[in-house]
Amino acid sequence: MALFSRDKKIDHLRKLPLFRGCSRRELTAVARIVDLVEEPAGKVLTRTGETGREFCLILEGTVRVEVSPRKRVRLGRGDFFGEMSLLDGEPRSATVIAETPLRLLVIGRREFWPLLLKVPQLTRRIMVTLSQRLRQAQAEQAALD
Question: Could you tell me the pTM of the whole model?
Answer without folding.
Answer: 0.84
